[in-house]
Amino acid sequence: MERFLIDERSEILIERGLITGDLLPARSDREKVAIFTQPGAGHLAATVAGRVSAVEVHQMMLPDRDAAKTLAVALTAYEWLAEVGIGRHDTVAAIGGGATTDLAGFVAATYLRGIEVVNVPTTLLGAVDAAIGGKTGVNLGGKNLIGAFHHPRRVVIDPDVLDELPAELKQEGLAEALKAGLIGDETLFSHIESTGLKADLDLVVPRAVAVKAAVVNQDFRETGIRAILNYGHTIGHAVEIAAGLAHGHAVAVGMTAAGRIAEDLVGFGAAARQQGAIIGLGLPVRTDGVARSSVLEVLAQDKKRDASGVRMVLLRAIGVPVVLSVPGQTIDAGLASIGIG
Questions:
Q1: If you classify domain 2-163 with CATH, what class do you get?
Q2: Which is nearest to 280 in space by CA: 288, 272, 270, 290?
Q3: Which of 98, 120, 201, 258 has minimal Cβ neighbours within 10 Å of its Cβ?
């Protein structure tokens, strides 16, 4: 079993077959478990519920993807937790993709001022990124404008579950794993570059998790180095909302734009190599037909904007990220490189 620890409080376990065991940390005072899941993961939620012993288990189905990440859904979740009697010593379990763990984590962070949450990501994107690190949130115009930092007590990742994913969900997760390689692990990047959708998840998942865990351990609340985990996400989030792209596809486009900007500002020499790896995964590098004004409107709400421009993660080289304020005219060049003029 691979085990990572964040801030001495949040453990990440990676092993094949874990989904069939009792996934909750040992606690003598737990009386109830509230499971949040999504339609595609309902059978796994039932498996987990069947393995929970000596406590009362309740389940709530959330909408898929970002339809779950709204204040209206959060309100429904709060009301449900109160109705079934979840208390401070009880546990929320999130079983699903990144939107499920984002919403459930936010609700757990704010219900009764914070209760224990256990994440069981069932998508590759969730496993290598969204379910770990303690960032939770819902959308309000822009991505994750309302949120909280709240460590999951445990994250359980079972590659057997991930093996069964359809190609499009594997693509999305590999976009985030590729990002992890670009900012902090050239071996991981090179493996995905050379294997594409046939990448070995037994290598990809722990190496991507290791990158994120190492960064979060240094900067849980994103006051400094944690910002590098946003590589590809600044323009990517704007494109995701404006164009309605899936998250992984939007991040791929965002990394392409960031590569073009980094060529201009910091001399990034591997933009073509990065683009080749993205194309090799079958992910987009352009989003033609999207209105520039729509993208700029979302960027104007970005949490990382300051007086000098939009703060973006750029690469000097693979594994050498920097965070800089990017002026408007350079943003325009990046947008033009992905078909938004």
A1: alpha beta
A2: 272
A3: 201
